[in-house]
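for the writeup, i need someone to sanity check this before i put it in the appendix. the sequnce is what the collaborator sent (i think, or maybe the updated version? ugh). structure was predicted straight from it, no edits. if anything looks off just tell me and ill rerun, i have time this weekend
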Amino acid sequence: MVSHAYIHIPFCSHKCDFCDFAAFAGLDHLTGEYEQAVLKEMEDRLIALKDKRGDLEENRLRSIFFGGGTPGLVEPDVLGAMLEKLRSHIQPAQDVEITIETTPHAITRDKLVRWQELGINRISIGVESFLDEELKAMGRDHTRKEAFHGLELACESGVEVVALDLMYGLPTQTVASFAESLACATDFAGGYKNLLHVSAYGLHLADNSPLYSRFPRGAEAYPPDNTYVQMFEVLVETLEDAGFEHYEVSNFSRPGKQSRHNLAYWMNAEYLAFGVSAHRYLDGVRSSNWRSLKRYMRDPLGDETVEVIDEQTRCREAIMLGLRLRRGIDLSAFAAEHGFDLTERFCAEIEQFCAAGLMDRAEGRLFLTRKGVPVSNSVIAAFF
């Protein structure tokens, strides 16, 4: 049963220097044409899914996620048309989580009213930093003042969940400056009871990132590895002290307010996806749409990539995704799903990591310790 849907809105006011997503600035005039392409894709794919699986009446969407790009930039009626198309084929659950990603300076009072009328109950705001010098260094086009204003508007709107995104490991950033951004976030969370989620991602740049033109790879402006780890430690301490639970490597929430949509990814659930470059996972196949905007609009049903997920890949992904979650891997459930005991097959590796304080076992689960999270990629790689 498929219970999650992603819709990609690629338009941006500015393409950030670190961004490697299918996001396009200066193409707002194509919004109407893009909307029609997405609606056609949704109609055709959902009809094909009905033909394959039969009536979808028993399905209930538990999460819908507008990602980008900056979905907050487009007219709410565009989002409304896409939601209506989804609802015409698959009914949302009564408590469906509907998320929209946005930059803070795209938020207006009128949009907030319309978003909530459409059923959007979770707003994810890409602040990244509360310091003007860091925002400028990373190529963002909003300011500290605009970040505060957008957050205030969202929090005061009464929307059920406001989620805030930050980044660390940025050029010119220090442990102290990151701590200042975190303090701004926790101050907001203390003042507004609906700021319930914080994500904080370490900077990761593609090889051709425009940021390298101003801050070349290895430049002193980037924090060294030991500082990067210190930033992570400050992140966890600050947010946990403020009452947030660290539930995934990069994600924190008030109790019970985890991102339902992202949890679906981390738990390897099936999900629909529509729009340029969108990735879906159905019937053991992971596929993606064309990354080229023009090509997608000409051929919205075309696949740029198709990968059949065999048992070996499913097993590897279950380990990788499970260890990203702070609760870790349920060992009994893993054995039932994949047919072997993880702790027996990887006995030496697990003993080594446990002895080093990077991993632990308790209550039938295998999980990374707080010390192990900053080096999670290296730990997880040992299982492959």
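The mean pLDDT is 93. The chain has two domains: 4-266, 311-384.
thx in advance!!
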